[in-house]
Amino acid sequence: MHTPVFTRFAAAFALACALTSTMPPTTAQAPAPQTQAGELLVYFGTYTNGPLSKGIYSSRLNLATGQLSPAQLAAESENPSFLAVHPKRNFLYAVNEVGKFEGQNSGSVSAFAMDRQSGALKFLNRQPSAGAGSAHVTIDSEGKNVLVANYGGGSVAVLPTAANGSLQPPSSTIQHSGSSVNPNRQKGPHAHSINLDSSNRFAYAADLGIDKIMIYRYDAAKGSLTPNTPPSASVEPGSGPRHFAIHPEGRYAYVINELPLTITAFSRDAGNGGLTAFQTISTLQPGTTPQPGYSTAEIQVHPSGRFLYGSNRGHNSISMFSIDPQSGRLTFSQIISTDGRTPRNFGIDPSGTYLLAANQQSDTVTVFRINEKNGRLMQVGTPVAVPAPVCVKFISPQPSTPR
Description:
By secondary structure, the chain is mainly β.
């Protein structure tokens, strides 16, 4: 696997950090270029516990060429590792992946108002996540509530949103319990992600520590989660389920298992939210044995529903699978280097044309064009400098007002 040399980008980052070092918290860079027609605004969540990143960054993706503009600081924020965008595209929410907030053993979630032309973010407020190490966030399809998974605390919570986009204190919290077979990673619960189905009725929380996908009934009006029947679905002991993706048709769902580098496919009952596993497949090329230091991270289904992608850290690659439309089964098709280190996350643009891989430890984002016929990836240009990127979200630009 090809590994890029970090020093290619060090000088650019040193200059960027110098330019922004005097910026007050939550203030965006200025002036920021305006998003044009034929472009998508892209936000990057990052880790700020290293020397380079200061918060959330923005860039612009040219949909004709695949060129990604230089990243600019959109808002300062503490460890904004995962992002969610309001369905009206006017607010953005970020988990702050910390162990303590306001003296409590809790992470937090921050709310921002979004300028879709400039990419600037205006800080609104920050609320506790009701558990330490908040690691994943999503928002319901009506924009009424934000849902968060707390890895360190092993819990999930719901935070209502106000009309101005700000967050209210948690209205519902559920603490997971249990353990599994890996003595280093599974001594207790570690909720790693939370996702909602398209009906806004069921929430799925992948818990790495207990080898289960917990299933909850979700009530948007009450801002509540309650145990479902069935209450969960299990994966093989020691798998460590991390992130979860539902097929666009809703009949299938997939979880990427961090520890053995596998994906488990499920059939999904739209009536009761239940999951039934029918396949587990390696994320590596057939015949490849996982090495110490390898682990998986992100999983996403292509908007067409025909392809699935997963990222491999350590191996530093993206795996691509075709999805059988009749059975939902996966067939390995491609594995490709991310031209960087530790692809913790990636994003697929809404049109399904590009995939952007966030290489956390090489401080870069790599752009791939997706072949619309077979789903295979082809790298576009060279990686773009982004400090410690760990989440990718796309926004359509706000149309300019005619003069």
